[in-house]
């Protein structure tokens, strides 16, 4: 699994109805995109208390082939570049994914919690603890699904969660409204940790 997001910050007086119309008329284009686990079409609005107006789609890719076709194969990202310019694309290696009790419902909100992996800690133990926390977090009422991913260049960990409804703000979290969810292979994203454990030699 690969996590990916680009965040397009728009002018303070930007009519976010333009983005809503864009998603309403074009969002279904990825509803059957091969290799895509899910794409959440996300926005933040100043009118709803956000510090910025922002269009910020978030992706969980089932395969790197699908991600590459989207980015470089003329299958979607070129439209973003043509309309908004080329935004930085954040990406992380997926380490865990869990389905929540509201997986069958359409999510209306999303949160992204970001934290550094502290220097001097054992990354193996750190990730193991975070995976335990992910399982507990994903079992909360209203959770559609939740993913854990790491950027090992900057040692940044993110936990991305889709919710059936809006939730109370927590420190270190970005909150988004979900306008549409394309989820062609969400049910195929493996749950639990995302690597095979090599048995130790005896």
TrEMBL record:
Organism this protein belongs to: Streptantibioticus rubrisoli
Name by which UniProt lists this protein: DUF4865 family protein
Superkingdom of origin organism: Bacteria
InterPro entries, alphabetized: DUF4865
Pfam families the UniProt entry points to: DUF4865
